[in-house]
Amino acid sequence: MRNLGAQYAVRRQKVVTNSALVEATLGRMPDPTVEEAYVAELRNARYFGNAGGCVVAEDDGVIWTHSPTNYTFRLSLHHAFSRLRLGPLKRYRKVIHLVTRSAESNYWHWMVDCVPRFRLLKAAGVNIQDAVLLVEHRNLPYQLETLRALGFSEEAVIVPDAKTHLETDTLIVPSYLNPVLTPETITYSRESLEFLRETFLPARDEEGVGSMTKGAERIYVSRGRGVRSFANDEEVANYLQGEGFTVVRCEELSVREQARTFARARVVVGLHGAALTNVVFCQPGATVVEIMPPDFVQPHFWTICEQAGLRYAAYCEDEKRTGVAGYRFQRTEGTAVDVARFGEFLGSILKP
User: Are strands 267-271 and 165-174 parallel, antiparallel or unpaired?
Assistant: First the structure.
C-alpha cells in the first residue's frame, strides 16, 4: 500500500445565513475529516457485484474497506453474505478499481467522490495504459467526457453489474474520499479540488480563465423543472436577470464548458443540487449563495466553499419546513421562494 497523505480535520467557519434552522443544523455538525489517502495493490484478488461491489483477497477474505455497498454500514448486512451464486469468473492481468457508490448517476458524486481518485493513481505513479478500469457509469455525456479527459477509452472500461465476477493478477484500489457518505463527514482535500481544476481548466486553454472579460460575472444556476426544483423558478430567474445575472442550465453544457462558466463568475446563486458541484471551478474570493430547501439542509457546498476559499451564504425559508426528509419524498419540489425576501438577503450579501 502506498500512503499519499495523512488524515486531518478541517475546521469550518460559522455559516452566513438568514435561517435559524440552517444555522442550528449545520452548527451541530462536527468538523469533518479528510481521510488518509493511499493506493492499495492486491495480488490475485477477486471482485464481484455492483453498487459498491465486493473485493475478496487471495485468502478469500472480504476486504471491508474496499467493499462499500450503498448506505449499508454494517458488515453483517453486506450483500456478500446474501449471494447464493456468483457470475462466471473472468480473469484479467491488471484492473483499476474505481467503483464509487452513488457516482453512476449523480454529477456531484461522480465529480467529487469518483474523479479525484484518479489523482491518487497519478500521485502513486500507476501506469494506466496497460490496465482496464472498473467503474460504474450510465454512458452519461459528462461521464464519457471525463473518462476521455483522464486518458481512458471506452474499450478499456468495465461497467460492473450484478453478474460481474472477475479475478486479476493485480487489483489497484485508490482510497475512498468519503467512505461512509454521511453529510457530517463530507469533506475533500484541497488537492482533490485542485485536481478537478487542473483537469478541466488547463492553464494553456486560450478560452479558459485567462479570458475573464468573456462570460458572465453573475450567474443563476437554474434547475428548471428538475427534481427538488421550486415552483417559481421562472420568477426567480426573471428577478435575478434584472439584477445582472445570467441564467445557466448546466445540463446543456459539457463539463469543460461548465468549468469555464463558473471560473469566470464572481457571484453564483442556485438552489441546492448537483449543478452547484461546479463551484469547485470558481476563483478564490467568489461568492456562492445557496437556496437551501428547509427539508434538505445539507453541508455539501458549504464545505466545498470552505475548502476552495469561496464566500458562502445560505438562504432558507424555515416556516416552509414539513418535517419530512427531502431525500426520501422530494417534498421540496414545488416549494416557492419569496422573491422579495430573497432579494433583500442577496442584497445584504452583495453590498459593498
Answer: unpaired
Q: For 258-322, give the DSSP string.
A: HHHHHHH-SEEEEESSGGGGGGGGSPTT-EEEEE--TT----HHHHHHHHHT-EEEEE--GGG--
Question: What cell does 334 get?
Answer: 414545488
- Helices 141-149 and 255-264 cross at an angle (nearest 10°) of 90
Read off the amino acid at residue 290.
Answer: E
CA distance 12 to 303: 7
**Residues 6 or more apart whose Cβ sits within 8 Å of residue 185:** 32, 33, 178, 179
Q: Buried (b) or exposed (e) across 233-254, using 16+ Cβ within 10 A?
A: beebbebbeeeebebbebeebe
Question: What would the pLDDT profile of 156-207 be if each residue is shown by its tens digit?
Answer: 999 999 899 999 999 999 998 876 666 666 668 889 999 999 999 976 454 4
Residue 241 has which C-alpha cell? 436577470
CA gap 15, 28 in Å, rounded? 12
Nearest alpha carbon to residue 289 among 269, 311, 262, 266? 269
CB 292 within 8 A of CB 22: yes
State the Cα–Cα distance between residues 85 and 48, nearest whole angstrom: 11
Average pLDDT over residues 226-249: 88
